[in-house]
Amino acid sequence: MHKSPTSAFGLLAGVHLRQNWRRLSGVLRQSKLLSGTIFVFLFGYCWLSFAIFHRAMQFIGAFPGLGDLLVERMLFILFAFLFALLLISNLVITYSNLFRNRETSFLHSLPMDPNTIFQWKFLESTVVASWAFLFLIAPMLAAYGLVEGVAWSFYPMTLLMILMFVILPGFAGGWGAIGLARYMDRRQFQYSLLAIGVLTLGALAFWLKTEQITDDMLETRVMLVLDRLLKNTQFSQFAFLPSYWLASGVIAWSEGATSSTFFFILVLLSYGLFLGGLTMTLPGHPFYEASSAVQSRGSSMGWRFWHRWRKTPDDPLAQAFGKPSWIHRCMQLLFWIPSDRRSVLVKDVRVFWRDTSQWGQSLLLFGLLAAYIINLKNFSARLNNSFWIHLIAYLNLGACSLNLATLTTRFVFPQFSLEGKRLWIVGMAPIGLNKVIQIKYTLATLVSLILTGALIVLSCYMLRMPVSQMIYFTLVILVMSLSLNGLAMGLGVIYPNFKEDNPSKIVSGFGGTFCLVMSFLYIVGGILCLAIGSPWAQHATLFKTALAWGAFCLLSLLIGYLPYRIGIRRLRYLEI
Amino acid sequence: MIELHGLVKTFGELRAVDGINLTIPKGEFFAVLGPNAAGKTTTIKMMVGLIKPTEGFARVAGYDIQQQPLKARERLAYVPDFPFLYDKLTPVEFMQFTGQLFNIDPDRVRTQGSELAERFHLEPFLNKSIEGLSHGTRQRVAIASALLHDPEVFVIDEPMVGLDPQHARIVKDILKERSQKGMTVFLSTHQLSVAEELADRIGIIHQGRLVAVGTLKDLREQSGHDEALESSFLRLTSEQAATDAEI
Predict the structure, then answer these.
(1) Which of A195, B52, B125, B167 could pair with A292 as two cysteines, CB 3.0-4.6 Å apart?
(2) Are residues A106 and B101, on separate chains, in Cβ contact within 8 Å?
(3) Is A1 on the interface with B (CB under 8 A)?
């Protein structure tokens, strides 16, 4: 009597398509101007990345004798790293979608085969995890096609290969998520995973260690340098990597080698069909077991963290209400801040720290930044060309400020919305919502300034910049911190989402996307102003520098102060 | 009917459900009471198959929920305290979705759905997006949708949360009617008045164990005093706590 698997899957697909269509329509109806801005931004981003890739490929392709080889190697490396990112992305998203999702519990209580539930959730997760990959890769492949002068058939063929490729990390993510959910409470599994992670990172750090290149080598032994570069990047051509099959297939088709292309297509297809067959038919029971394990566990990391180290006290009341915690003691040092505002700070710090899903994601971000910083030392300060020195300095500023924008959009924007259902607590308290927003803004600005300030100082040090430049860029980051936090906090109040508890979902809504777009435009505009009026540029004058800083500060005021002010005013008329 | 045999659930060192044995015959209205964190929701989750018991098994409408989950769920309806609904669907669309899932004929979904919508006073909301509805209205949509396929067993956790007195009355009446027509109802609630009014038998869970089960009269006798359910409940749960402390 229960619904056949195909029709149950169709039902779920129908419901979700309808939901998503209505979500999209709702967003488009909200404000045509803002939707238009986002659309223009997306189009602008595609065009800009296409232009950069096109220029870069032309530049690299013009290298005498080795141009084509270098462009190809670039493709292999890019696909290899994107494959690694897809693996992580699929694992995180699939886990969350399968096991931290109320819909899954609802579906488990219905006469629906767990296999069908898994199939739908797997498909959903793969699409969510992979759309960004397609978005990133499209301009690059378009640029490659243009540079290589390919036929029109290159594009649909490449699309086909990409679709067959993106499903593979999806399968890995699905099974990985089930394994993690099922065994994450077993201490040996956790320790093994940690050991494997550390060993893998160590091996990668050793294998991918860059070598020091002297100026002498650059002038007289270029081929040796290139040979080393090619040798160190050969891992991307490991024959069993799916990224290798994709890159090889794309390159073969662009060269007109149809039999090679079809060979790699068949390899992708065969793996896809084999793993797809396993994934679509076998995971029902392990998925249910894993769901049950997760439901039985609650927050596994939180539970283990909070209960492992605590012994049952003899007098729980005295222990609970006795000595103040370390957070309270730290906050008491900030004696000039009134105690009601300090209590909001303590609450925010505690809630953030105990929500591992929040700072767990930021670990990934900081890991990438660490890799970026470590590699900076290989940019020789003995570059003589002022253009390159300048460019690198401002690109570094761009990287640091984009990191700042990521932090503010991801963590600051949802702050007001997260108060959401708890607004009856802070909202009704005599502190007033204005002051709550002020204190959140202050905390966020301080933390992001410390993190991004450290990043800019470290990166300038690694690039062997003079102290004057280091101070200059740190000042820029200070202004950007104040501005971007104001923007994120203000927009968070103007576009709240009180229905969601998940910060990622709050950010992925209309307001969060708008915040990201505005942050990006501000950074691009600000850096352009500063670069044009740079005191270290050729033909630099004091007047030009002052004008540039004036424009930058005005822009910062508009972008940071205006939304914040509007947000504070909106609080007066807030209806919950 | 519902059969729970030696149900145990442990979370690490915590024994959340500690050997529950219970049989609820067809058509009985059974209410389960208990203090917070007594193990009621864990028991319910094992009963509907959301979590696997550490020991023991549960049978719903004659089918083991772990061994034959689909057959059991075809005959079961479960409404949790905060039911999940698809926000962007309307109540009609949600009922149609549920109806299709249970293979109910579309005409029957229409007729049955209309009747239930009328009984639950959902007419003004039928074509509005669920995300815009109040908690009480969403609760009514969830209960109406759960009744659509005429389940043999109906499990509901805290049904009256968010319902105004009028709609609470409607829910009580409908559940009682269906129970009298043969639907087994398992209701978990903190509201003793609901249990007193509706239940044929009442069970009290405390610290993972079924400390008392029977009719209102049985519970009074068990507590040793002829008094209101609240007093019996408090006495039974504090007696159990005292016994546990001694152990």
Answers:
(1) B52
(2) no
(3) yes
Rounded to two decimals, the pTM is: 0.79
Which pLDDT tens digits describe chain A residue by residue (576 residues)? 555 666 889 999 999 999 989 888 887 777 777 778 778 888 888 998 999 999 999 998 888 888 888 889 989 999 998 898 899 889 888 988 898 888 998 999 999 999 999 999 999 999 988 888 888 889 999 999 998 888 888 999 999 999 999 999 999 999 999 998 888 766 666 677 677 777 777 777 666 666 666 666 666 666 777 777 777 788 888 999 999 999 999 999 998 899 999 999 999 999 999 999 999 999 999 999 999 988 877 544 444 444 444 445 566 666 666 666 777 777 778 778 887 778 778 778 877 777 666 666 676 677 777 778 777 776 655 566 777 788 888 989 999 999 999 999 988 999 888 876 666 666 666 777 788 889 889 999 999 999 999 999 988 888 888 899 999 999 999 999 999 999 999 999 998 888 777 777 788 777 888 899 899 999 999 999 999 888 887 778 889 899 999 999 999 999 999 999 999 998 877 765
A289 contacts B74? CB cut-off 8 A:
no
User: Which residues on neighbouring strands pair with residue B187, listed in sequence order?
Assistant: B31, B156
Interface of B with A (CB under 8 A): 9, 11-12, 45, 48-52, 70-71, 73-74, 76, 78, 80, 83-84, 86-89, 93, 97-98, 100-103, 129, 131
State the ipTM, two decimals. 0.82
Name the H helices within chain B: 40-47, 69-74, 91-101, 106-119, 135-147, 165-180, 192-198, 216-223, 229-246
**Beta carbons within 8 Å of B46's beta carbon, 6+ residues apart:** B4, B7, B9, B17, B52, B53, B58, B65
Q: Would you state the structure tokens that stand for residue B19, as one six-digit string?
A: 């050997």
A208 touches B: beta carbon within 8 Å: no
B101: which chain A residues are within 8 Å (Cβ-Cβ)? 3, 8, 11, 110-112
Number of H helices and number of E strands within chain B? 9, 10
Locate the chain A residue with the closest alpha carbon to B53. Answer: A292
In 3D, which of A282, A279, A276, A238 has the Cα closest to residue A76? Answer: A238
| Assigned superfamily of B2-246 | P-loop containing nucleotide triphosphate hydrolases (3.40.50.300)
Please give the Cα distance from A164 to B219 (Å, whole number): 65
For chain A, domain boundaries: 30-308, 340-576
Place of tokens 């050793």: A206
Instruction: Read off the tokens for A392.
Output: 């690198």
Mode of pairing for the β-strands spanning B209-214 and B201-206 = antiparallel
